[in-house]
Amino acid sequence: MTAFTYERDLDHPVAAEVEQTIRDVLEGHLTSQGLEGVLVNPGLDHDGDPVLFVHLKFRLVEPGIDLNTLSQSTLAVRRALWAIGERRFPHLRYDFHDDQRMIGTEHW
User: DSSP 3-state assignment of 56?
Assistant: First the structure.
C-alpha cells in the first residue's frame, strides 16, 4: 500500500456519487466519440493498492475516434474524483468496435 491508500478504500464499494461523477465526466467528453456505456468496479492493482476499474464500451463512429479527446477525458476523470475526495486511481479500459478507426494514428 502507498501513502495515499486509506483503510476505507480496501474492499470498499464504489459510492453512487463516485460512479455518477465518472459517468458525467465521461459522457460529457466521449458521447461524440461513440461512448455507449460505462461500468465501474472497485479492485486492487498489481501492487495491491485499491483502484477503480472503469470499462468503457464504444459503438462504431465515423470518421474515427480522436485520441486527444480520450486522453483529455482521462485527466478530467482524475481531477473530478480528486475534487470529491476519491483517492483511488481510475484505470480506464476501452472496448472499441473491431473496425474502429483512430484519428491521429495515420502517421504511426
Answer: strand
Q: Rounded CA gap, 49 and 7, in Å? A: 11
Partners of 43 in the β-ladder = 51
Residue 1: the pLDDT is: 45
The pTM of this model reads 0.85
CA angle centred on 58, ends 52 and 62, rounded to 5°: 145
Residue 5 pLDDT greater than 80, yes or no: no
- Are 45 and 75 in contact by the 8 Å Cβ rule? The answer is no
Asked if residue 89 lies in contact with residue 46, where contact means CB atoms within 8 angstroms, the answer is: no
Task: Record the cell numbers describing residue 13, joined without a space.
Answer: 464499494
pLDDT at 34: 97
CA distance 31 to 91: 19
Angstrom distance (rounded) from CA 10 to CA 20: 20
Q: What are phi and psi of 71, to 5 degrees?
A: -60, -45
For residue 67, give the C-alpha cell: 485520441
